[in-house]
Amino acid sequence: MSQPTFKAELKREVAHLVIEQNYPFRQGSEAMGVSISALRDGVKRSMSEKRGQTISQGKTMTADQQRIQELEARLRKVEREKDILKKASALLMSDFYNR
Predict the structure, then answer these.
(1) What does pTM read for this prediction?
(2) Average pLDDT of each block of 10 consecutive residues along the chain (99 residues)?
(3) CATH label, 1-60, candidates 1.10.4030, 1.10.260, 1.10.10, 3.30.1450
(4) Cα-based angle 25, 27, 29 (whole degrees, multiple of 5)
(5) Considering only CA atoms, which of 58, 53, 82 is closest in space to residue 70?
(6) Secondary structure (3-state) at 12
(7) Going along the chain, which residue ranges are E strands?
């Protein structure tokens, strides 16, 4: 018999009970109808999310992957700022030469 699948919200709620309120893994797994190891995996994911790591395709990001993501976001921001400065500079120069 296959294990039922549950919505992410329910998984988060049960993980919250286990983490925050010290709800026993056995009772949580019985209440959800899943194995204890599946519940433990959900709790690990929830704890990773709380530490600021995101879940991508069911896997927790490594520190290097998280750093790359942060640097890529920072690069996009700097490139936008550079484009704005270029446009502002061109606008100011055109005003200067049109006098």
Answers:
(1) 0.41
(2) 59 76 80 80 78 58 86 93 92 84
(3) 1.10.10
(4) 65
(5) 53
(6) helix
(7) 55-56, 59-60
